Amino acid sequence: MFLLDDMIFSDHLPLTLDALLDRPQDRLPHAASLDSNGRGSLMLAKWSNTLALFHACFYDQESAKNLLALCSSKATPNAPLTAFSECLRDLIASFKSPSLTPGRVSRRKGPPWFNKQCKQARNRQRSIYITHKESDSSSPPPAYFVAKKAYKLALFRAKQNWQQLRWKALLEATQSRNPRDFWCLLNRRPISRSIYSISTPTWELFLRQVFYDADLPFPTALGFFPEQLPRRPPVNPSTITKLIGQLKSGKAPGPDLIPAEAILAHKDWWITILTEVFNAINQTGIIPKVWKDAIIVPILKKGSPSNPGNFRNISLLSVLGKLYTRFLLSKLECWVE
């Protein structure tokens, strides 16, 4: 079973998929639970110099530095997970802030060539016209027609200059044989969000038919006894180093908004954190909830956009959760051999 909720992350219509385990959630609360539902306040961004600087500033904060000491605390087995959860909350809270959101482009209204000179000329014309309306004069003064002519001239020159710069940039991209710059210039036009008429309950019903068989009996809860977990040896930091080295750049992050590039750029910090977090998971059997969430991005293939079956659903998972999954896979492979 799973729960579905709306989540605006891009030009598509992403949804959050929250898996419901067979364990009673009220008796086994997740120490590292995380509310990943942004309700439209989160904005994912591709990795860039701006985003790299944002992450660098975050890791320099006092809270991020204190996390290293908190994760090393052995007060309770859940201490590293709780500290890790608070760190993720702080990180996502920073992304929710409009003033700190990296990669957010302010969408200006009006034509792209409308510059400061055009605005000043328009304001001058409006000011003269307002003064004329407040007076008893029957016709506008000559200064109004002069200002109107100057405004039209400013628009013409601004548009002409903008077009010349665009053509120059397009020719330079063609001569440099850089297809990426060429198509970025060619496709640089206003983007409207794709708003489809499919409601969240409709998506939930469709996905239940794909991933859930109502005819099969639901598994009985088995119970959870942390004291019966096998005692595993401590995780070696070199294992985490090897796992991080296998990460690939250019992949979209999951609900925690942590891309692979951020982990690779601050490898030493993450090695220390993940070593303690993995040890805590092995001791408690509790996995951070955000690692079990997915952002489903439906991309229209063909046909009517009102039919859920015409979409290709892509699940975005947490990169950190993938690291732990790969860690478990290596342990299972050793056990099989």
Order of helices and strands: EEHHHHHHHHHHEEH
* Widest beta sheet: strand line-up: 1-2-3-4
3D shape: elongated
Query: What is the first-to-last residue Cα distance?
Result: 34 Å
Mean pLDDT: 75
Using only CA atoms, what is the Rg? 27 Å
Pick out the low-confidence regions.
Answer: 6-44, 97-106
Structural class, judged by helices and strands? alpha+beta
Number of strands: 4
Helix content: 40-55%
Q: Please, how many helices?
A: 11
Major beta sheet summary = 4 strands, antiparallel
Provide the β-strand percentage band. Answer: 5-15%
Short summary:
With 337 residues, this protein is α+β, with helices and mostly antiparallel strands. Among the domains are: 116-186; 198-214 and 225-336, no CATH class.
3D structure, described in words:
The chain is of the alpha+beta class and 337 residues long. Among the domains are: 116-186; 198-214 and 225-336, no CATH class. Helices cover 48% and strands 7% of the residues. It has 11 helices and 4 strands. The longest helix has 34 residues, at 142-175. It comes from Micrurus surinamensis (Surinam coral snake). This is Reverse transcriptase domain-containing protein.
